Inverse folding.
């Protein structure tokens, strides 16, 4: 009679269960860190999306020799790029929306005002006021609360507020604050970024806030910091 030897090549049920448990634990840990990683980068993603619209508005205003309006709409949670110079059949100018992008929920990223635990705006050469959200007078966003920034063909930028196109708003810069609130306290920020738009030149810059730096150097130009 032939005798069969027990093979050592297979796995026992207990060994398979141990492997599955280890895989489950590693997957849970990886998922936890991935979610936290994504949360930390949400303000950067939001800032880069807004900068992309600003840069396109500036480029179009200079190359097409016309005024481009950017609306940051809190009610619809959207940013829009609008051409104010498209002629209607009657000869009058009319608005044409070029692009619209959704913004992240306010529970994830705030843009309405500076974070409560941040004392100052980024240190531009001349003070750049914070963005102002006002009831809109434009058909695309009436009556929502909107920050309106108008890029003009001469390179100037005006924070138009709720002024119509012929409102003669003076050139001025805008600081847009972008930050994620802590889950444990909405009055404390987790990650803080800012975008400055200079009224006299139309230049756009992204800033990173570093809490561990001294008071004079907490705001760092992101191009120097390596994230933009």
């Amino acid at each position: 009679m032939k005798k069969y030897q027990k093979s050592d090549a297979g796995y026992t049920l207990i060994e398979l269960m141990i492997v599955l448990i280890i895989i489950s634990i590693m997957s849970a840990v990886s998922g936890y860190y991935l979610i936290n990683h994504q949360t930390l980068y949400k303000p950067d993603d939001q800032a880069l999306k807004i900068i992309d619209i600003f840069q396109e508005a500036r480029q179009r205003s200079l190359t097409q020799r016309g005024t481009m309006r950017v609306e940051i709409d809190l009610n619809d949670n959207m940013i829009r790029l609008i051409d104010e110079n498209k002629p209607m059949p009657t000869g009058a100018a009319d608005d044409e929306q070029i692009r619209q992008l959704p913004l992240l929920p306010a529970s994830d990223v705030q843009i309405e005002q500076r974070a409560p635990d941040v004392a100052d705006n980024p240190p531009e050469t001349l003070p750049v006021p914070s963005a102002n959200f006002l009831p809109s007078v434009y058909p695309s966003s009436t009556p929502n609360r909107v920050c309106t920034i108008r890029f003009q063909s001469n390179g100037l930028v005006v924070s138009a507020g709720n002024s119509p196109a012929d409102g003669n708003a003076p050139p001025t810069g805008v600081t847009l604050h972008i930050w994620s609130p802590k889950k444990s306290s909405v009055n404390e920020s987790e990650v803080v970024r800012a975008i400055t738009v200079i009224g006299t030149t139309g230049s756009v810059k992204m800033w990173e806030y570093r809490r561990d730096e001294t008071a004079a150097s907490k705001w760092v130009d992101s191009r120097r910091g390596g994230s933009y």
Summary: The chain has one domain: 42-225.
